[in-house]
Amino acid sequence: MKDTEVRKLTQKERARQKRVVNLIASENYTSRDVREALASEFTNKYAEGYPGARYYGGNEVVDELERLTQARALKLFKLSPDEWHVNVQPLSGSPANLAVYYALMAPFGKIMGLELSHGGHLTHGHKVSATGRLWTPVPYTLDPKSELLNYSAIKKIARKEKPDILVAGYTAYPRIIDWKKMRGAANAGGALLMADISHIAGLIAGSVYPSPFPYVSVVTTTMHKTLRGPRAALIFTRKDGTDFYKRIDKAIFPGLQGGPHMNTIAGVAVALREANTPNFKKYSRQVVKNARTLANELKKHDLRLVSGGTDTHLILVDTWRGGEGIGGKEASERLEREGIVVNKNTIPFDARSPQDPSGIRIGTAAETTRGKKEEDMVALAQRIAHILS
Ligand SMILES: *Cc1c(COP(=O)(O)O)cnc(C)c1O
């Protein structure tokens, strides 16, 4: 690179990424092939529209690329093109969710999502997000004792509030979601059930987490978390006789976005193929094994985990412990000084502020990509416990 300033920063960031232990649950390391696709000539191309129906000329190669990406996305999740449609153009997870709401709900329609401080995402109808202002949020919470989803309580709220869309799939929930029960809750309220599998898509692809596809109408996911792809998102829509998939395509373009980032879509295609290999299955199994080991070891060191453990790549540690411990901000800063990067996070029914919440969130997806195994987790738990004590 001739630009020495940016080159230096790139080198600095590369060195930083190599130096730290990365336990940020939403991050991962892309392959060289994914990054090569991102840097490809596809970045030069305008391709507003969809394959076979573009607004500019010169899109014959781009059409092939987008169709290939769609086919790979359906194949990865074992979906038939007769039953499912996929849009591969969302620029990221938030615009993907926005597009679903914009396509399928009138203004001020009701979005029923998990409370942000309980592990939901901003785009599930939180008031600081456009999704909580353009539509009406109907929040649900976790059970205060078990810190798990309470399906009968969710069903009750759905029956009473009659939301337009019920969102399942979270940002900081370490456990298995019972998709069938979520379907039951959606039915009770006459709601459309949407799964946002941004965090767990790689685990679902690797068959270590139950698939929501048999139970839902719409699935959104980011590519860049456990799926190990570039920053982008996908929207899957069931072809159930409705025109929902056409409405969602129209919501993405021309509703909310302009030209798709075809270089990113090339990277998505590469990542989807990488995720459809025995190696990736092995990887996702290891991600969960590492998280389970880390969770068990942290508990041995007397740390309190929200819900008592994990079924995924993700662990929530209650560092505050009702005042006996330290806040999440201090915990994350202490860890970072020792080269361990996590994020501070609220815990269910958190009495503290999001700027200084009661916990931290830990994930094993990134470090597992770097080859870490159970024995590394044992050592890591010891270090974390020592730094936090
Ligand atoms: C990360 C995440 C998103 C948003 O993704 P961005 O790419 O950051 O916009 C949406 N939903 C869930 C559940 C997420 O975890």
TrEMBL record:
EC number, as in UniProt:
2.1.2.1
Return the annotated site residues (Plays an important role in substrate specificity). Answer: 224
Q: Which GO terms describe its biological process?
A: glycine biosynthetic process from serine; tetrahydrofolate interconversion
Write out the residues that bind (6S)-5,6,7,8-tetrahydrofolate.
116, 120-122
What is this protein's record name?
A: Serine hydroxymethyltransferase
Tell me the protein family, please. Answer: Belongs to the SHMT family.
Which gene carries the instructions for this protein?
Answer: glyA
The protein's role, per its UniProt record: Catalyzes the reversible interconversion of serine and glycine with tetrahydrofolate (THF) serving as the one-carbon carrier. This reaction serves as the major source of one-carbon groups required for the biosynthesis of purines, thymidylate, methionine, and other important biomolecules. Also exhibits THF-independent aldolase activity toward beta-hydroxyamino acids, producing glycine and aldehydes, via a retro-aldol mechanism.
Native source species: Candidatus Vogelbacteria bacterium RIFOXYD1_FULL_51_18
Give the Gene Ontology MF terms in alphabetical order. glycine hydroxymethyltransferase activity; pyridoxal phosphate binding
Q: Which InterPro entries match?
A: PyrdxlP-dep_Trfase, PyrdxlP-dep_Trfase_major, PyrdxlP-dep_Trfase_small, Ser_HO-MeTrfase, Ser_HO-MeTrfase-like, SHMT-like_dom
How would you classify this enzyme at the top EC level? transferase
Q: Name the source's superkingdom.
A: Bacteria
Give, as in the UniProt entry, the pathway in which the protein acts: One-carbon metabolism; tetrahydrofolate interconversion; Amino-acid biosynthesis; glycine biosynthesis; glycine from L-serine: step 1/1
Oligomer and partners: Homodimer.
Instruction: State the needed cofactors, names only.
Output: pyridoxal 5'-phosphate
What positions are modified (N6-(pyridoxal phosphate)lysine)? 225
Query: Among the entry's GO cellular component annotations, what is one?
Result: cytoplasm
User: Does the keyword section mention Ubl conjugation?
Assistant: no
What keywords are assigned to this protein?
A: Amino-acid biosynthesis, Cytoplasm, One-carbon metabolism, Pyridoxal phosphate, Transferase
Return the NCBIfam families for the record: PRK00011.1
